[in-house]
Amino acid sequence: MEATQNDLPTLSKNAQKKVLKQQRYEAKKAEKKAQEKQQKKENAERKRKEWEETLASVNEEERSKLIESRRNLRKERMEKRSEEKEKKIERLTRATQCGHKIVIDLDFAHLMTPSEIHSLVQQIMYCYAVNGRCTIPGHLWLTGCEGEMESQLKRLPGFDKWMIEKENRPYIEALKDQKENLVYLTADAETVLEELDPKKIYIVGGLVDRNRWKGITMKKANEQGIQTAKLPIGNYLKMSSSQVLTVNQVIEILLKFIETKDWKVSFFQVIPQRKRPEADSEGYQEVEGEENEEKDDQLDTKKTCIEVPSHGPKADSEGYQEVEGEENEEKDDQLNRKKACIEVPSHG
């Protein structure tokens, strides 16, 4: 049920407007999702009928050839998926042994609402998918993973099989023997990150705060006595309205830099055009603040590719095999992936 401004007496007028705006966005997103689901169902039914009509229009010999061709195509796709999955496992296994360690600090769950936690969970899912597709993936960690955060993560399909370090304790405890190598990435830091040191462990704050907790990660790092640094964004481009990178953007930028060793390429491939209207050739000031503008962030929604278990063909005496997985034949390169919309959180 959508809240009204009278239901939000403890918030400022500006905050109330943001909450109501977010609710309208969520309602619109749910409606769009329902429409896409219906469209997918209709497309599947249309393709099923087309397949049946094609089989009915040819003789027995041609029908057998069509069915065999369809089986071979499906087999090739399954073999390709299996091969890619094996390579992904090999890359992630190497990353756990010698990859750059990147920690997502989930110790802020108590400061977020369930919907904000859900937003962060969706981003974590995106981060894991991106890391799995990288030629040189990082060694990802989730620390402070407990309570509602842990519950929502466990509801993700296949989360228990993720090749990622899952730690209930906060990083300061789990990695206490490497405290001197901990580096918290925060926009409020004075030190600019020039290179990624394989010995260092880079921490990204996992927080969707709707602009409530400015500077919280810098304060936390200072209290813990660990190093801080910020990405060298200002050296390469000028940011526009929304000046804060999201958790998934920060992770992807780090992963791009690991592959390319080029900050400019990494920034321009990850940061959306609307946030970088012009290149920063003169050296504009570094990104500041903790603002998380809902409108900008929603426009920055990304899609996560999640592998789906393949289904074997069902026997059919008439040759009408299952076509549920065939409704998007023209997009076979997507390899039977689902799409998950990722909301944008703030990077503290």
TrEMBL record:
Biased composition (Acidic residues): 280-297, 319-332
Annotated PROSITE patterns: SAM_MT_TRM10
Class in the EC hierarchy, top level: transferase
Gene Ontology CC terms, in alphabetical order: nucleus
Biased composition (Basic and acidic residues): 23-52, 60-88
Catalytic activity: guanosine(9) in tRNA + S-adenosyl-L-methionine = N(1)-methylguanosine(9) in tRNA + S-adenosyl-L-homocysteine + H(+)
Molecular-function GO term, any one: tRNA binding
Highest taxon listed in the record's lineage: Eukaryota
Biased composition range(s): Polar residues: 1-14
Region (Disordered): 1-88, 278-348
Protein name: tRNA (guanine(9)-N(1))-methyltransferase
Lineage of the species this protein comes from: Eukaryota, Viridiplantae, Streptophyta, Embryophyta, Tracheophyta
